[in-house]
Amino acid sequence: MAEKFWCLSQLFVKPEMQAKGIGQALLSKTLMQAELNGAANRALITFAYNIASTGLYIKNGLYPREPLYRMAAPAQAVAQIPADAGCDITPIAPRPESGEWPAGEWIGRIDQELLGFRRDLHHQFLLGGGAARAVRIEHAGRAAGYAYISARGHVGPLAIAPGIDAKAVVTTALRCALEGGARQVSLLVPGRADVVMQTVLALGFRIEVPLVLMASRPFGNWGNYLPRDPGFL
Amino acid sequence: MDELNIVMPPGQAPGRSFSLKLRSGETGDSIMMFEEAIPVGTKSTFHLHRHSDEVAYFLSGEITFKIGDEVTVGGPGTCAFMPRGVPHAWKSSGAKTGRVQFLYTPAKAGGLIEEQQRTGRGFASMNEHEFDRAVAAPRLGTARTVAALSPRRRRCRIKSGRRTALGRRLMDITYRPAKAEDLEEAERVAQQSGNALRVRHGGQPSPAPPSVAFPKFCRARDPSGLWVAEDGDAIVGFGFS
After folding, report:
1. Nearest CA to A153 among A51, A58, A79, A207?
2. CB-CB: which of B66, B231, B239 is closest to A11?
């Protein structure tokens, strides 16, 4: 994605063709985009147990910055959350191709605070059909965060505005995921998001996959931001 | 006509050198032409020339060009046309020093190179503002791509892999920007490769390849971040950003 923040979405090499320099060549090609666009930082998420790719990224100047865990639970585990989880929700209107995008103002402000940059194109993708549902989470009348929910019950990205009760926001988002009728609910929880981690463990979530966020420079308030998946921050 | 070689002072742009072929004063300001040796990793800024068209003819090595929104990798024999007003950048992306013949018409944009010859100052000692001013190249947002590259040379063959003790053949892998029709095949590679990894670590294989929706969205906005590796006609790897 061409923005001042560069993110590698996917890099895969067929199993029988690995360890021959193809991954490095492809990474060099994609990194050209970051160079040509003058990206201020580069980041990606990979499987923590993929030591070959982790080494490749370190060699190219992207270092492990934050452990992440994909956590999941059967839908019935989430059903115990009370209907009034502490926050209100309203749907986020899609971003038009041109013209005003009123939600962009508060969403951009939260992203700026949590990640250090705006990501309007990512929101445009998610609001344009990339996610089944997009909700603004409110607490006492003000924006407490946002959540995107997939048709298969995956929550993310999930942003929790600074100073807001993380437990209330995450349980509200999980309730939304349940309403879609998915059999399982899942999310990606950063190691630093201790309140979120304790909240979902108490609900019966278990770790499915360990991942790691890698970046050229440290960034992000990972106590308050849950990326969507390895291919989408 | 005498040939004038300019070698960058040590420590500024090691190994980068220019050889003037035609100076503006010698062509009535119509054409300025020079040959440049571009060491591995050397790159230009993303810039444009307001008053001059530019042609680059690749003599050796591998150069990756971004012209407007289009990224192309070229080898010897490739000819790139960069019309005035279209932003462009390049990088020596091969394994050894590349050689490229550059031509400006009218000659105005070649003034920077001639100025360097006159003052002895190198690229690295000029800041970006001076560089842009010298080549009359203010930054632009978008411009229509008008890149014309030799179709025969659009692909660059890169040797990858090593000869093993058993004498296995060197692989001939092609790297090229991803086309829209590559995305589904690439995601099947992601599924295959991801599943091998998941199963090896006690996880469950994924029953379906990842969605092409996000790569498709990214490619429509900036295709320069999406690359595939091919062995023959089969995609064996890809990187999408």
Report:
1. A79
2. B239
For chains A and B, CB pairs below 8 A equal 139
Say which DSSP state A46 is in.
E
Closest CB from B64, B173, B236 relative to A32: B64
Residue B84 shares a structural domain with residue B185: no
Range of the domain at A198: 69-208+222-226
Q: How many helices (H) and strands (E) does chain A have?
A: 7, 11
Entry pTM: 0.66
ipTM greater than 0.90: yes
Tens digit of each residue's pLDDT (9 = 90 or more) over A109-136: 999 999 999 998 899 999 998 898 999 9
Residues A23 and A89 placed together within one structural domain of the fold: no
**What are the Cα distances from residue A145, in Å, to A92, A105, A188, A225, A226?**
11, 13, 16, 9, 11
Amino acid B36 reads E
SS3 assignment, position A35: helix
CATH of residue A36's domain is 3.40.630.30
Which of B59, B226, B88, B222 has the alpha carbon at shortest distance from B146? B88
